[in-house]
């Protein structure tokens, strides 16, 4: 069960979280285990089941070609 990232994330918490930059909704990328803000083009990492909601820790998303 430990290798299943879904078991480490509280679904209620995910419903409440918003992007700290845009206040927009976030989409959970299960494969990369991060929360994606499409509006800000940022992906916030989830470490040990805890979303790291700092812009300085976020990964910039590539613009689609």
Descriptive notes:
Strands 1, 2, 3, 4 and 5 form a 5-stranded antiparallel beta sheet that branches. Helices cover 9% and strands 26% of the residues. It has 1 helix and 5 strands. With 65 residues, the chain is mostly beta strands. It starts with 10 loop residues before the first helix and ends in a 5-residue tail after the last strand.
* Rg of Cα set: 12 Å
- The percent range for helix content is under 10%
Low-confidence region ranges:
1-7
Q: How would you sum up the global shape?
A: globular
Largest sheet, if any?
5 strands, antiparallel
Amino- and carboxy-terminal Cα gap: 37 Å
Q: How many helices does DSSP assign?
A: 1
Order of helices and strands: HEEEEE
Number of DSSP E strands: 5
β-strand percent reads 25-35%
* Structural class label: mainly beta
**Average predicted confidence as pLDDT:** 86
Q: What topology does this entry show?
A:
Layout: H1 11-16, E1 27-29, E2 34-37, E3 42-47, E4 50-51, E5 59-60
Output the keywords:
mainly beta, globular, 5 strands, single chain, 65 residues, disordered N terminus, five-stranded antiparallel β-sheet
Concise structural overview:
By secondary structure, this protein is mainly beta.
